[in-house]
Write a structure and sequence with these properties.
By secondary structure, the chain is α+β, with helices and mostly antiparallel strands. It folds into 2 domains: 102 residues, Zincin-like, CATH 3.30.2010; 39 residues, no CATH class. It has 5 helices and 6 strands. The strands form 2 sheets. The chain has a 3-stranded mixed sheet. Strands 5-4-6 form a 3-stranded antiparallel sheet. A hairpin with a 4-residue loop joins strand 4 and strand 5. Helix 1 packs parallel to helix 3 and helix 3 crosses helix 4. It starts with 6 loop residues before the first helix and ends with a strand.
């Protein structure tokens, strides 16, 4: 059973978000929109930034509790950087981990890594059902998401080896 994130740990993460926001305000001399902080993220992601309908940072409480110090060093600054980029470039489409985000991470003195390297062995995971598909050279296992897109006529998938369209196995 995964460990729960304590109130003190939650408060520490909130303080770190506020710290990075303050660093950004000092560096760019801007006032940033407040950010809602939640601890309800599941799965393999450590954190997530959402801008709509209002700015929100979500943390994975299971990952945070199991590797708290490393989580504190990497995740809050990473997610705040997304918020800062959105505030600095409101009318520009920028890549989530593009040059602008990397520049903010460098200004924070943080390594601009896109993915974390936390141990995921204690993290409960929902496994998607897989569906068999064939092409001209082999069998593929497509996720339920891709399978449903094909059924709805929203997508076609092709083999990277032979280039043939994937067909469901009867």
């Amino acid at each position: 059973m995964p460990r729960a994130l304590s109130r003190q740990q939650q408060q520490r993460l909130v303080e770190l978000v506020e710290y990075w926001l303050h660093q950004a305000e000092r560096h760019w001399e801007l006032r940033y929109q407040p950010v809602e902080i939640r601890f309800d993220l599941r799965g393999r992601a450590a954190g997530q930034y959402r801008s709509h309908p209002k700015p929100c940072i979500r943390f994975n409480a299971v990952l945070a509790a199991s590797q708290f110090e490393a989580f504190c060093e990497q995740t809050p600054g990473h997610e705040v950087a997304h918020h800062v980029v959105e505030q600095l470039y409101p009318d520009k489409r920028v890549r989530p981990h593009g040059r602008e985000w990397q520049a903010v991470m460098h200004s924070f003195g943080l390594d601009p890594r896109r993915c974390h390297e936390f141990d995921l062995s204690n993290v409960p995971q929902r496994l998607q059902r897989r569906f068999p598909y064939r092409c001209g050279c082999r069998e593929h296992q497509l996720s339920a998401t891709r399978h449903n897109r094909i059924l709805r006529g929203e997508a076609n998938y092709y083999c990277r080896q032979c280039g043939e369209s994937l067909r469901a196995v009867e």
